[in-house]
Amino acid sequence: MIFLFGRRGNVLKKLNDAMDYIEAHLEDEFLLEKISEHINVSDYHFRKIFFALTNM
């Protein structure tokens, strides 16, 4: 799954950026589209990577 964002470090950075965004917007409406837009990936790729790396 790591190949979806290119280099391995890039995957972890994007996941960290997504987690930071989620933490900063806990009181806002949770929209997958906003998170994936924030880290510049499609909703599909974000879901695949997030669930693969977090085991959710």
In words, what does this structure look like?
Helix 2 crosses helix 3. This protein has one domain (2-54). The chain has 56 residues and is an all-alpha fold. It is built from three helices and no strands. The longest helix is centred in the first third of the chain and has 17 residues, at 8-24.
Q: Nutshell version of this structure?
A:
The protein has 56 residues and is mainly alpha-helical. Helix content is 64%, strand content 0%. It is built from three helices and no strands.
Secondary structure layout plus pairing:
Elements: H1 8-24, H2 32-38, H3 43-54
Number of β-strand runs: 0
Largest sheet: none
Output the radius of gyration.
Answer: 11 Å
Structural class: mainly alpha
Total domain count: 1
Shape: globular
Order of helices and strands: HHH
- End-to-end CA span: 14 Å
Could you report the average pLDDT, rounded to the nearest whole number? 81
Q: Percentage of helical residues? A: 55-70%
The number of helices is 3
Strand fraction band?
Answer: under 5%
Q: Name the quaternary structure.
A: single chain
* Uncertain ranges: none
